[in-house]
Amino acid sequence: MTPDAIWWRQPSFPGRTTFGCCCARPVPPTTDSWGFYLEVDLLGGNGDDCRIEFESLQKLPVLRLYDSDWRPSKPIPLRRTRMAIRQVVEMRIAYEDLATVLPKEKAALLRGENARPWVRIRAWTWNAQRERRVDFGPTVASFRIVETPYALDPALPDRPDSPVQLGLPVRGQWLVVQGAFGSFSHQNVWAYDLVQLDATGHQSWPPESRQNDAYHGWGQPVYSPIEGRVLMARGQMADQSGKQTDRRQAVPNQVYIASPNGFNLDLVHLQQDSVSVRTGERVSAGRQVGLVGNSGSSAGPHLHVAAWQGRFPRKTVPQAWTNVRVGLNPGRNDPWARDLSEWEPREGFFVETVQTTGQP
Ligand SMILES: [Zn+2]
Q1: Candidates 1.10.1610.10, 2.70.70.10, 2.60.120.380, 3.40.350.10; CATH matching 164-353
Q2: Fewer Cβ close by (within 10 Å): the C or N end of the chain?
Q3: What is the pLDDT of residues 233-246, one digit of tens each?
């Protein structure tokens, strides 16, 4: 069978209208006052590429493409795409439609040699009466049908060094929100940013909050995944507030640990006054060193993990995380979850430790 569409299915609609905390009684959306939106990461690498919009007065769903600054294109009707809204929302996004509206080089990536076998979709509903979002569907990694099977993990940049092995420095499930050579702040560095999401795919509730304590990852303990000596520990710097970054406050709290295996590990953006180790101290693997924070050049609470080698010039080296469950969806029932004894992190995947042997 020739694949001709991306299928996507949202299990509940309109769904939770009482999500979050609000004083007023929520009004459920009606068929003449809602819009339904899918933020779609079709191609990977730069976050969401497009939005599919279906509003109650429209006959056809439309697609808008977004550039890297999230500037929208004109709405383009998806003529062959079909949507069914009953107890579930089911959408069949035709490749033909996408091929017509995407720039040529992007359309080629959908089905070409290096196509990813999955697409990430975030859904939400807008109630026009109340002028607010009323429903957030789960983050869904939808199947993309491709002619030949491709590896789930995309290829990594060329690496002269073999990766250093270490466990995760945090407990619970985290998203690699930016991977090595990421387009935001990891250009040309082997570093990984971890955030925690809820089942709706948001880092904070309410979304994009300016309050650090609204973030699910904020204040989670950070452990040293290795034994070693603390080369540097700093903890007095103030945190940024939520998504607001004050670049003048660019010095982060961090713990920098020398491993006997020939690399140094940097755990960065820790919460002010949370750092619980001192420069020069020896730490054992599993020792708590601080809490996830938002200090330094940081756009929201997260943990930046980087391993370094050499003194001058010193350079980042790739990492492999050991004993991890790796998946594409938040929560427990991810059909894509894999238990791996070793995994080189990729952006967009969820990860957690699965075998604990006294270490986090
Ligand atoms: Zn980072």
Answers
A1: 2.70.70.10
A2: N
A3: 999 999 998 777 66
